[in-house]
């Protein structure tokens, strides 16, 4: 059985509750940091026909595939989703729009080109919006596609976001099953930047099968490898999503989500090495069993520090953090390199 | 070929071995996990392939490590680990690719089920740490691994050992462990003992007197800063594990590990499950168990009757034993003193039988062995077991013993059956009699040794004794024949106690002579036979229990690499015949036949007689 087949088997077993197709999968507001500083954001998860890669199996940690629509949404359904989502931004004076589809915004099978134009035109028309970010797999980041978006967004910045996860092709293939190479990311990033867009790279801590330290060092190395192709890094901390291969192994005590101390260490080291780079991390689900966690006592405080750093890019956020479990984490870093295929659980 | 590891002593699947590295390492061994990345250590982890961008890089790192470490350190070759439930053919494919990385000295590798094994000195049970509490999966992978790799290869189970489970893991045949769990427990404020784990806050005193625990007390331990406390707990946890390892090694040397784990496994459900499931793997366990030992087999729990030695004894009675020519069967209860015939109660039975004894065949009913024909009362474990006696027999005990008796009575017919038994023994006889529709005459009148009962036995038997009878020498020969068949298989008795042979020596040190040539001697402490060269020559035609060697004359002991072929029926301590073009010899097996064939190191047979062939 290949890794992809293993993922697909789980996908096929998973039951998905039907939901209306003219409502977005999710929408929320938040804050982010761009070159000019902190800014309000609205995140829209479009309910499309779904990620082509995810439908064929897809990534071991991705549960977003279940957010896609059961029936193919019409163009009007998609526009209705936008309209409903944007209501949440009605109070904002100046903000950024982050578009996700649980797949690729630039895949015309998910978002037909006419709909893409209508969405971007509408956002461009809203003068409060300073920047639009759209997530996509790199195979859709072509010169043509980027030019197309940038030409519609006349007065608004455009950022292409890609889930690179790691610069290691071995890990991306044999642990994550992402289905592209570092080179394809590089090509996409160059295409984006040469045609007037900026690039945001999502990285993932920690992939299946890796020790805590291997995963930590992999992210540090990835930041080094990808820095010249990206404007911003966002480091996602793996949380155990339902219906994923990660969940399957986690259930069987064969995976532990990352320690929050690991991401603190990563942020400190990479920010020092690349002071001008925006490096963020949103510790979703921090402190829970399924999410990144330290011990019960400190998880929430450490997660808050990570969020604060992500907005301020100020390393002093981490200065006063300490907890007895940090010693344990240090032991895990040392010992988990020699457990030969079993994680050190709490 | 394993060049750096040798098994020196065995107790069932458990073993004491030695790594011949820059320093000799005795197994079972607990690696200090932190030393695995140090090139000066005797055992080194070559590292994970997840972190290298290319195999060239990994190869280069390995070359550097080997250079620093020298040829006589064992390096576990670079590996890309997956957890146990990762797709098999991904792990196989990745592992096959990793074989491009070459090394020259002592090496270890990850065992991947389904992938062809090479000849490393050590194999790692990948993801062992995931199997805690999962007895079934753990055992099935371990057995698959044992089947695949050479028997003189060390097995390392990482990130699983604790003081509590160590004895069981060693019992199952694992040689190498590490202290990862002990360290992590220390940092989690967990205090490990052989009787399970305790959170430090739940303890009222420190139940240990090791150096770490003696250096402090509970109050100061609790008040200490986290780091210092963790250091002491870690030290204690490791001490507890080392102490347990030393105790288990002693048990292996003494040959009594089974008795220990029958108690120790009660500390955790999964350990008890491991014992029961392993007992169910009869072929695996039996093949490793010595045919005879000097030790007492102590049966203290229900699982004792599932021991390979007990089951094997019953199977051999069924498959190899032929009763002497008698028409009357007398069933007797067992006695605490062994062999039974030296006990008070059996003396009384024998006296009561008087001259009628020539007409009867005696079979003893007992738990947990089932039934023991008088001829085999000396043979391990019949004269070597001790069991908890309360007068109460549980249902499984009764069922097991009844099934042994039932099998026997189905196979062998008598004109009359007398049972001089009481209580549970009688219940068992009644169950079997009813099931088979046969009559059993009961002679005991409330107490088997009372004068009335004995008189009744005497009277009953003398009335029945009209059929075939056996003389004194024939009875001795019947004993020798029965032991020969038990030991070498059906038919061996006819060969080793041939027509016209004579018996010499007092009970139980009988010897059989064919003319002036001695063929066999009974060794009282094991109740097994030693054969002479003449006996070996006679037995050779049967083709069993032979070890084939090349054209050389062995001396002292036969080493495993000298073995060309060996009968897979051979068990440790079996009497074996060594045959090659230049010599015939007899000796005692030190390992089983399969291990002789597949090992490259270690003593296969301790020789007793060697004769050059012209």
From TrEMBL, chain A:
GO terms for molecular function: 4 iron, 4 sulfur cluster binding; catalytic activity; metal ion binding. Pfam families: Radical_SAM. One of its GO terms (cellular component) is cytoplasm. GO terms for biological process: tRNA wobble base 5-methoxycarbonylmethyl-2-thiouridinylation. Keywords: 4Fe-4S, Iron, Iron-sulfur, Metal-binding, S-adenosyl-L-methionine. Its cofactor is [4Fe-4S] cluster. Residues 41-269 form the Elp3/MiaA/NifB-like radical SAM core domain. InterPro entries: ELP3, Elp3/MiaA/NifB-like_rSAM, RaSEA, rSAM, rSAM_sf. This is TIGR01210 family radical SAM protein. The lineage of its organism: Archaea, Methanobacteriati, Methanobacteriota, Stenosarchaea group, Methanomicrobia.
From TrEMBL, chain B:
It comes from the Archaea. PROSITE patterns: PUA. CDD domains: PUA_archaeosine_TGT (cd21149). SUPFAM superfamilies: Pre-PUA domain, PUA domain-like, tRNA-guanine transglycosylase, Uracil-DNA glycosylase-like. One of its GO terms (molecular function) is RNA binding. Pathway: tRNA modification; archaeosine-tRNA biosynthesis. Keywords: Transferase, tRNA processing. Residues 545-612 form the PUA domain. InterPro entries: Archaeosine_synthase_1 (IPR053418), ArchSynthase1/Queuine_TRR (IPR050076), DUF5591 (IPR040777), PUA (IPR002478), PUA-like_sf (IPR015947), PUA_sf (IPR036974), TGT-like_sf (IPR036511), TGT_C2 (IPR029402). One of its GO terms (cellular component) is cytoplasm. Gene3D superfamilies: ArcTGT, C2 domain, PUA domain, Queuine tRNA-ribosyltransferase-like, Uracil-DNA glycosylase-like. GO terms for biological process: tRNA wobble guanine modification. Belongs to the archaeosine synthase type 1 family. NCBIfam families: tRNA_mod_ArcS, unchar_dom_2. This is tRNA-ribosyltransferase. It comes from Methanolobus vulcani.
